[in-house]
Prior knowledge:
Layout: H1 9-22, H2 42-48, H3 55-82, H4 91-99, H5 104-118, H6 124-138, E1 144-145, E2 150-151, H7 152-157, H8 167-187, H9 207-218, E3 226-228, E4 235-237, E5 254-255, E6 263-264, H10 265-277
Antiparallel strand pairs: 1-2, 3-4, 5-6
Helix pairs in contact: 3-4, 5-8, 5-10, 8-9, 9-10
Amino acid sequence: xxxxxRLTEKDLEQIVKRILKEQTIIPEDPxxxxxxxxxxxxxxxxSSNLPATGFVKSDKKAEKVRQEQINKSKEYNKIVKQLYxxxxxxxxxxxxxxxxxxxxxxxxxxxxxxxxxxxxASGLRYNITAPLKTIGNLLGYNTSTGPAQMSQQTAKxxxxxxxxxxxxxxxxxxxxxxxRSYGIATSIGYSDTAKSVNVxxxxxxxxxxxxxxxxxxxxxxKIVKYCDKAGSKLKVKCDNKNTKQVKNYLPxxxxxxxxxxxxxxxxxxxxxxxxxxxxxxx
Length: 282
């Protein structure tokens, strides 16, 4: 004998609300096996004969996100295979950043700086000093660490989200540093087409980029307007006494280090520029 269940109008209303709530589940990751584009609700909607209004729009949005993820995945796989000119440990991060819209030229320069700073997180010197610098940071010293050899204070100033000790974090750290330097250089008139006036053309990308690279070695505080100094060949920071500006000038400071690896500003920029030129595969 069949059992008859009687439902009130209120019972029906509660059942409908429950079904509607269940159908708002966010679709799972489209890259997972056995992915169901309907989010597991398509069949339920059909069998229940509920109106499609509202759900079709939601499904279209989910499908759009899914398709974007698939396209990015395809683009990433394509790019990472082309990065033969990039150190293998950096290729995945570079490909991911390109897919997500990072500027390619700035990425190349960031790679060049990391190559100059840490030989791409490799080599005897880096492998010896890296652990010592990590210990120094733990003890409260503001030492430069990671592939980018950036200090924790600089990372904090840039409001970085990733640890600078990782490859991806280091790349994004230098990238953000360069963006900040570009902004300062642009605001005081450095050109992004003309080369620096006082370095060999082969060692210059453009005046704005050159001084942005230099700032990684000499500090952003040195990105200023430079003027002629009366009775001297040296150029100095423009002030009330020195007002004749030399546009697109790249200062040349000398750095003496504890490990005897000394460098001038011009030498630093030249090294980075030469490394930059080798990244011709993207």
